[in-house]
Amino acid sequence: MPEFDFQMKKQNQKTKSKKGTKSKKSAPTRKRESVSAKSKLPQEKEKQPVTEKAPRAIQKTPRKTGEAEIGSISRIGSKVGQFLREAKMELKKVKWPTRKELLASTAVVIVLTLLVAFFLGLVDFGLIKIIKNVVG
């Protein structure tokens, strides 16, 4: 891994030095890649030209009403059953609070809610007084 970091630093230094040396007379040219095939990352592979394919015509086959409904209901039922089993397993992993912890956190929430409500009430009352003095 350190070898890769060294190559990246070396490559960055080369690109930095080339940025300021562009002359006005030279025509735009493609950059040459001096990186060996060994040091290329999988993300740096050369991009292949994208060829657009004509969309395929999809033909819908007529459904048999009785068999298709039974199959879809059983698939939905199996997915619901799987979801409920996984939910039960996740709920077993939860660390549920004790009664003491639950009461303490509930008290903290109630006290903080009252403090914020009192503060916002004071700010609102003060702004009403200021607006009445300015307007009236």
- What do the pLDDT scores average to? 75
Total number of helices: 3
Characterize the main sheet.
none
**Beta strands, count:** 0
Strand percent estimate: under 5%
Distance between the termini: 74 Å
Helix content: 55-70%
List unreliable stretches of 5+ residues.
none
Question: Which structural category fits the helices and strands?
Answer: mainly alpha
Broad shape: flat
Rounded to an integer in angstroms, the radius of gyration calculated over CA atoms is 34 Å
| Sequence of secondary-structure elements | HHH
Keywords:
136 residues; mainly alpha; 62% helix
Short structural summary:
The chain has 136 residues and is mainly alpha-helical. The protein contains three helices and no strands.
Topology:
Blueprint: H1 2-19, H2 65-93, H3 99-135
Protein described:
It is built from three helices and no strands. The relative contact order is 0.03. By secondary structure, it is mostly helical. The protein has a domain at 97-136. The model has no long low-confidence stretch (mean pLDDT 75). It is flat and about 75 Å long. The N and C termini lie far apart (74 Å).
